[in-house]
Every structure is written in structure tokens, then in C-alpha cells.
Specification:
By secondary structure, the protein is α/β, with parallel strands linked by helices. Helices cover about 40% and strands about 20% of the residues. It has twelve helices and ten strands. Strands 3-2-1-4-5-10-9-6-7-8 form a ten-stranded mixed beta sheet, with helices on both faces. Helix 1 (about 20-35) links the parallel strand 1 and strand 2 (about 40-45). Helix 4 (about 85-95) packs parallel to helix 6. The longest helix has 19 residues, at about 185-205.
């Protein structure tokens, strides 16, 4: 970890200038004001579409500047032409940003929201956390839920959430299944597996990478059931307004921990989602 805290670094907002991205704009402004840092707004024009519609970067900049609400946050606009995902990541690196904020333009299906989109490319390749805004921001985040599979990446996700939001309650949730529960009816089997999962959680929390300040505001729970069902229940119980996920787990978080329901899970989550890559 560098000497400069993540919250001192600029925030990058990647916007396609649709109405949906207004939510991301508002949240990015809220965070930049809270963290006392500058906000860099990036809009990338597709060269073919821009030529077809007669769009030029100057017009896009003017539109963004006119739509900027009154704020004391220092806001910079960068308009580029080219590949959206690549230019957003390149700009974040060049400007040494600590967070990328973006929105989603469609909710028709998971592929529209995440996979195969510029957002997916950014999440997979960005060096910094990516905050995907789904809800209209009204208040600062009040309850953060972090999903864990006890991997190094989920530890990075936990510590990143703790660093970015140093005063908000954190809830660490691990979902597990009892193998062959369809035909193994023994209560003892379920108890034994539950005990083993509890030990794994204890070992995870005992790691020295979690500092005392984080530990004091952290609550952890092991929940039996499918990850999607568990998250849905815990979000409702904890009233979480931000869900934090590591992008890789013991064999790929998206594959190993979420299984085949990954697309459905990220599609129906109504809360904002922060995706964190392991820097290793």
C-alpha cells in the first residue's frame, strides 16, 4: 500500500451521457466532496457513431458542463474518441485515480448490464475498484456488505471497502452449501460442515492484514444456502446499500463462488456494487 490514501486520489467517472448515468454522476460528486478530492469525468465517443451522427468532442464537453449541478467539487472533463474500456482504464492510470465510478444503461438482461460491455472490460482490467451505480443516491452509504469465499481477493475487497469508507459498518458474509444434502439427512453432517466453515471464518479474520479499526466495526456471518439467496436475505436484514465483491476467488470468484448464477445474481442486485480486483 502506498503512502497516499485511496481517498486522497481523484475519482474517475465514466459516463455515456445517458439518463441512467446521472445517478453515477451524483454519487461520484457526493464521494468527491466527502473525500475532498477532484472528480474527472470521462466520456468516450465511438469514432464510427460520432462520424455518423456528426458528433464532435467539443459538443459533448459543452453538454457535460451545462448539466453539471452547482458544486464546490473540482471537476475536470475529458472527452476522447476510441475504445471505451481501454481509454477509461488508461485515463485512470494516467491521472492516478483511486476509484472508477460508472453506471449501467440497460436492465434488460445481465449481458446488457455487465458481461460483454465496456463496464465488464473495465472491471476485469482496472487497477482500482470499480463502483457500479444502480440507485439514485440520496444519502451516503450506511451499511456495506462484503461477500467472501476466504480468498486473497475477498480479503482485498474487505480492506478496500474499509479504507474507502472508514466509518461505515461492515458486514462480511460467507455462503456455503452442505454437499449431498438432498440425500444425506444427517443433522450431524450439517453441524460438522457448519463448524468447519466457522473455523475457516476465524482463520480468515485472524489474518494480520485486517487492522484493529476495521475489526472493531466488522461483523461476520456464515450462512447456509446458495449465494444469491443468502445475499438477498442479508441485504434485506442489514439494509445494506452497497455490496462489495472480489472479482477473483480461489479459482475465480465469479465462477467458483457464484457458480452458474453469476449473471442472474449481478443482474438482480438493486444495490450499488463495488468490484475489487486482487492487485497480485
Amino acid at each position: 500500500m502506498t503512502d497516499t490514501k485511496t481517498t486522497n486520489k481523484p475519482i474517475l467517472l465514466a459516463t455515456d451521457m445517458t439518463a441512467r448515468c446521472d445517478r453515477a454522476f451524483d454519487r461520484a460528486l457526493m464521494l468527491a466532496k466527502s473525500w475532498k478530492t477532484r472528480l474527472i469525468v470521462v466520456h468516450v465517443l465511438d469514432p464510427k457513431q460520432a462520424k455518423k451522427k456528426g458528433l464532435v468532442p467539443k459538443e459533448a464537453r459543452t453538454q457535460l458542463e451545462e448539466e453539471l449541478p452547482e458544486t464546490d467539487v473540482h471537476v475536470e472533463f475529458i472527452i476522447e474518441m476510441g475504445n471505451v474500456g481501454e481509454l477509461v482504464i488508461e485515463t485512470a492510470r494516467r491521472e492516478r485515480c483511486g476509484l472508477i465510478v460508472t453506471g449501467v444503461a440497460h436492465y434488460d438482461g445481465f449481458s446488457d448490464v455487465f458481461l460483454g460491455s465496456p463496464v465488464d472490460h473495465i472491471v476485469r482490467h482496472a487497477d482500482v475498484p470499480v463502483l457500479i451505480i444502480k440507485r439514485k443516491p440520496v444519502k451516503p452509504y450506511r451499511s456495506i456488505m462484503i461477500a467472501t469465499d476466504f480468498s486473497d481477493c475477498s480479503m482485498t475487497a474487505l480492506n478496500t471497502a474499509a479504507e474507502l469508507f472508514p466509518e461505515i459498518p461492515l458486514h462480511l458474509v460467507h455462503a456455503y452449501n452442505v454437499p449431498y444434502s438432498g440425500w444425506l439427512k444427517s443433522d450431524q453432517v450439517a453441524q460438522d460442515i457448519g463448524s468447519e466453515e466457522a473455523k475457516l471464518m476465524e482463520r480468515f479474520l485472524a489474518q494480520t492484514t485486517i487492522d484493529n479499526a476495521t475489526f472493531k466495526r466488522l461483523k461476520a456471518s456464515n450462512e447456509k444456502g446458495e449465494l444469491g439467496v443468502v445475499l438477498f436475505k442479508k441485504i434485506k436484514e442489514l439494509k445494506s446499500d452497497l455490496v462489495v465483491l472480489g472479482t477473483h476467488g480461489k479459482s475465480g470468484f465469479m465462477r467458483a463462488s457464484m457458480g452458474n448464477n453469476a449473471r442472474v445474481l449481478l443482474g438482480w442486485l438493486k444495490q450499488d456494487v463495488m468490484m475489487v480486483r486482487d492487485p497480485q
